[in-house]
Each structure stands twice: as structure tokens, then as C-alpha cells.
């Protein structure tokens, strides 16, 4: 693969990407981007990993990626399904400890596919989490809610709809999916993700643990502690870099090249982009976690993530051979300016001539 774009933040190409994104992330001391177009890739960063003179940010600086973690969980589901370990229509209770399954509203069963398409009927957060989160709401709200708390809360949940009836974004649902996949494989989520996704794709700087040289997160220009989300790890615990996220997106552009000797993973990289429903009917399509937007002659797949200290965007278009990611070490704003600017950058890359 060519590396015809420069990596220095002072080049014209990098400046055109970085300047608008940095402007859309007030309070960030570090912004990094990765772009792939026409077989070429660019990696660039600006700023420092912390206010007051930290080390320079770069393409290997780890950021908290929040809900972009969900796309990794979706890929793990597709990989295990392609390998025959699970099936999309498996009821989730098949892979959870006895007595910990959700109780669907109006009958039926919550399946793994329901969890991966936000159609399980489960609410955004599990019962009991907000009570434990309140004292640390602006710093680390989920750090004391562990896997045992999640499984204990699940049968107490009151679903808002029958499985498959309505779309409602659910951290709870994808976190439960991660537990179910780990249960099906007889291991824990972190180990399973590393074995089936991270190592095969060469994502050495991606994972849920502490990362040396990571970007300090900021909320209203105040440093935040490292993000901890043990009970909902599959929904938001990962850290990654601009380089790793770009490699991850490039794997979706060319599954055969990314996993030449791994048929299950190669299939999974295609399966996650298959539309499962539209929300609303005729609107954006929902794939396995990924959102898909139909554009003239191509589709854009995208997802964003945020923690108390970082905001991240990822997106790609297989038809145009384009991928883009942007990371900032400041929490999401109410208007989502950074994510919106990143999406517009992806759209522009997919429609630019040449």
C-alpha cells in the first residue's frame, strides 16, 4: 500500500484535515486524523497529549474511543457466527449464566442480532447503574458498575418494547452482547476480542487496558481520570490510535487483503456492513452496529464515540475506497460539532474527484 500522503502536520493535505477538526473541538489539546483514499493513506496529529507541555500527539497516541468499541463487538459477533460458534438468531440466554437473561416485553426472545441492531427492547442503560454513577457523573460514572452488577441487573430490566419491534440505541444491549459472546467461547471479552479481532488485524495499540503515552481527556478544559467501564466493556471500554483505527477501517475496505488466511474474519468484515433494517423506514440503514447512509453511487458507514474526556469518529465507503477517522481529547459537545465536521470530511473524501 502506498504512503503517498505525508504524515507531518504542516503539510497542506494534513492542514486541510486538521485545522477544521481542531476548531470543532474546543478544549482539546490533541487532535489526530487518519485518512485512506485511492490506495494512499495519511496520518497526522497536532498538539500535545496533555495541557501544560505533555509529549507531542501523534498517530500512535492512544485515545479513549467510547462507543466505537461497539463496532469491534459487532465484528466479533460476525466472526463467531461465521466460525459456527454462535448464530445470529441465538437467544441471548443460551450464552449467559442461568438466571441472568433479560425478560422481554410481550413475549419472544432477545437474540444476538437484536442486541447488535439496537432492537432488543432494552433501554440505554441497565437498571441500578445511574444510582451508582451519580457521585462520579462528570468524571468516571461507570467505574464501580462491574460485570456482576450488569448480570444481576439484567433480569430486573423493564424493556420498552418487544424484541425486534423498535430501534433504540442501547449501551446495555451491546454490553450484554459482549458477555454472551464471551460465554459462548468460554473466555472473557477482552481475551476473545484480542484473539479473534485485534491480533489478526495487527491492531497492537488497541485494547481496554492502560496505554502508555495516552492522551489525557478533558471536559470543559478540566483533566478527567482514565475512563473505566468494566461492566459495559463491550460497549465502550477500548482505547486506540489514529493508525490502528485507520488499519481497522482499511480492513473493511479490503477484507481479502486484511484476512487472507482467516475465512471467518474475512466473512465477518463483509457481514458487518450488510443492512439489517432502516430507521426510520427509508432512512439510514442499520447494519451490525454500523450506521449506513445511502449517497449517490455509494454508501457511507459510520459510528462515533465519546467518553468524559475524548471524542472519536470513524467511517468508510467501500465503493469509493475511502476511510477516515478523527480523534480529540475532549468530551463531546451538545451540538456534536467535532463529529459533524468529521462526517463532512468523510463525505468530502468520498466525493472528491481523482
Structural write-up:
The protein is built from 12 helices and 12 strands. The chain has an 8-stranded antiparallel β-sheet with strand order 2-1-12-11-10-9-8-7, sandwiched between helices.
Structural class: alpha+beta
Largest sheet: 8 strands, antiparallel
CATH topology, by name, is Beta-lactamase
Question: How many independent structural domains?
Answer: 1
Helix content: 25-40%
Mass-distribution shape: globular
Low-confidence stretches: 1-7
Strand content: 15-25%
Q: Give the averaged pLDDT, no decimals.
A: 93
- The first-level CATH class is given as Alpha Beta
Question: What is the strand tally?
Answer: 12
Number of helices: 12
Cα gyration radius (Å): 19 Å
Topology order in helix (H) and strand (E) letters: HEEEHHHHHHEEHEHHHEEEEEEH
> So, CATH architecture?
3-Layer(aba) Sandwich
Quote the distance from N terminus to C terminus: 17 Å
Query: Looking at this structure, what is the CATH superfamily?
Result: DD-peptidase/beta-lactamase superfamily
Order of the strands making up the biggest sheet = 2-1-12-11-10-9-8-7
Protein name: Penicillin-binding protein
Pfam families: Beta-lactamase
Domain Beta-lactamase-related: 25-343
Organism: Streptomyces marincola
Brief descriptors of the model:
globular; 8-stranded antiparallel beta sheet; alpha+beta; 12 helices; two-stranded antiparallel ribbon; Beta-lactamase; 12 strands
Amino acid at each position: 500500500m502506498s504512503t503517498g500522503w505525508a504524515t507531518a502536520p504542516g503539510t497542506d493535505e494534513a492542514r486541510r484535515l486538521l485545522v477544521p477538526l481542531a476548531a470543532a473541538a474546543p478544549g482539546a489539546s490533541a487532535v489526530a486524523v487518519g485518512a485512506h483514499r485511492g490506495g494512499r493513506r495519511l496520518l497526522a496529529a497536532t498538539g500535545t497529549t496533555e495541557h501544560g507541555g505533555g509529549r507531542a500527539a501523534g498517530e500512535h497516541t492512544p485515545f479513549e474511543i467510547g462507543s466505537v468499541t461497539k463496532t469491534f463487538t459487532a465484528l466479533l459477533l460476525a466472526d463467531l457466527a461465521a466460525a459456527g460458534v454462535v448464530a445470529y438468531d441465538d437467544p441471548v440466554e443460551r450464552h449467559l449464566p442461568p438466571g441472568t437473561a433479560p425478560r422481554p416485553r410481550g413475549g419472544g426472545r432477545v437474540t444476538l442480532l437484536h442486541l447488535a441492531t439496537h432492537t432488543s427492547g432494552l433501554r440505554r442503560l441497565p437498571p441500578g447503574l445511574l444510582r451508582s454513577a451519580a457521585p462520579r457523573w462528570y468524571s468516571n460514572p461507570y467505574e464501580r458498575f462491574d460485570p456482576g452488577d450488569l448480570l444481576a441487573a439484567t433480569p430486573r430490566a423493564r424493556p420498552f418494547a418487544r424484541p425486534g419491534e423498535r430501534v433504540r440505541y442501547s449501551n446495555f444491549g451491546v454490553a450484554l452482547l459482549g458477555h454472551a459472546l464471551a460465554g459462548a467461547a468460554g473466555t472473557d471479552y477482552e481475551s476473545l476480542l484480542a484473539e479473534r479481532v485485534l491480533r489478526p488485524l495487527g491492531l497492537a495499540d488497541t485494547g481496554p487496558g492502560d496505554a502508555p503515552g495516552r492522551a489525557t481527556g478533558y471536559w470543559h478544559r478540566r483533566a478527567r481520570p482514565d475512563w473505566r467501564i468494566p461492566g459495559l466493556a463491550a460497549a465502550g471500554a477500548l482505547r486506540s490510535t489514529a493508525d490502528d483505527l485507520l488499519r481497522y477501517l482499511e480492513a473493511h475496505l479490503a477484507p481479502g487483503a486484511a484476512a487472507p488466511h482467516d475465512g471467518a474474519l474475512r466473512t465477518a468484515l463483509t457481514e458487518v456492513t450488510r443492512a439489517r433494517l432502516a430507521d426510520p423506514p427509508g432512512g439510514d440503514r442499520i447494519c451490525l452496529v454500523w450506521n449506513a447512509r445511502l449517497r449517490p453511487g455509494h454508501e457511507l458507514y459510520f459510528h462515533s464515540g465519546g467518553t468524559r474526556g475524548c471524542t472519536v469518529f470513524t467511517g468508510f465507503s467501500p465503493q469509493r475506497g475511502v476511510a477516515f477517522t478523527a480523534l480529540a481529547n475532549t468530551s463531546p459537545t451538545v451540538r456534536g460539532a467535532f463529529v459533524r465536521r468529521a462526517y463532512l470530511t468523510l463525505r468530502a473524501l468520498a466525493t472528491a474527484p481523482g
